[in-house]
Amino acid sequence: MARITAGVATSHVPAIGAALDLGKSADAYWAPVFKGYEFSKRWIAAAKPDVVILVYNDHATAFSLDLVPTFAIGCAASFTPADEGWGARPVPVVEGHPELADHIAQSVIQQDFDLTIVNRLDVDHGLTVPLSLMFGQPQAWPCRVIPIAVNVVLYPPPSGQRCYNLGKAIRRAVDSFDGDLNVQIWGTGGMSHQLQGPRAGLINREFDNAFLDRLIHDPQAQARVPHIEYVREAGSEGIELVMWLLMRGALDARVREVHRFYHVPASNTALGHLILENPAEPDGRGDPQA
């Protein structure tokens, strides 16, 4: 049977992709950022996921502000890196897993979540930067990817509780898939940052690190935090952190913290990164959350 073995959370700062693409990853400014992912690259090379369910937000690239689904799932066989105004990133085409994606869509919709099914989707830095951070610059991505796009761009965004519950529904969907797949789920975006207005450049280290603690040890409490607290404490773009709750909802109640990294600044944001594993039980399933 398919199983979710681990979760990854990471910021998806667009300037990180530019630093990689322009050969600046060893520069004094960027080297500390990429150093935080050296362990992650070794870890994922050993973990060898077959499929990554990658939760991200589209930045008005695939979805214009004329049509913004709250939750969308990419069910196509492949996804092309998007041109975000300065050309597409020079990264491989993202190969999907239509069979598992279709199964997740069917299962989650039957659990009363309205997913928008997308059969043609160009993916922007929100999805490709996390892949680059974890896998480097390969000729082809070493696993299949199922994009889950969450609206955290246009008001109103989904609540943290809704994202957390969707993660649980995705976990049940994966558990019921008739196929032997090693699946990971990634939540991306954040951490504290604001890109405009009088508070542009806001960073809140205390909030960010408290969020990481609660996400690991008390995600149910974190899920109850209203969106206005994210905006007030972490800036207007800090609301992206609800996507990390979607990842956490798909994991076991008790997880093993494998790696934690926090760095300020990365461009004008706080950067966070977690690797969490489901502890293996004798049946290989662990302790799913209720």
Structure description:
With 290 residues, this protein is α/β, with parallel strands linked by helices. The protein has a single domain, classed as Protocatechuate 4,5-dioxygenase, Chain B (3-Layer(aba) Sandwich). It contains 10 helices and 11 strands. Helix 1 crosses helix 5, helix 4 crosses helix 6 and helix 6 runs parallel beside helix 10.
Sequence-ordered SSE layout with sheet pairings:
Elements: E1 3-10, H1 14-21, H2 31-35, H3 38-47, E2 51-56, E3 71-74, E4 78-81, E5 94-95, H4 98-110, E6 116-118, E7 122-123, H5 125-135, E8 144-150, H6 160-175, E9 182-188, H7 205-217, H8 219-223, H9 227-234, H10 242-249, E10 256-266, E11 269-277
Parallel strand pairs: 1-9, 2-8, 2-9, 3-6, 4-7
Antiparallel strand pairs: 1-11, 3-8, 4-5, 10-11
Can you give me a brief rundown of this structure?
By secondary structure, the protein is α/β, with parallel strands linked by helices.
Salient structural properties:
290 residues, alpha/beta, 8-stranded mixed β-sheet, 3-stranded mixed β-sheet, 10 helices, 11 strands, globular
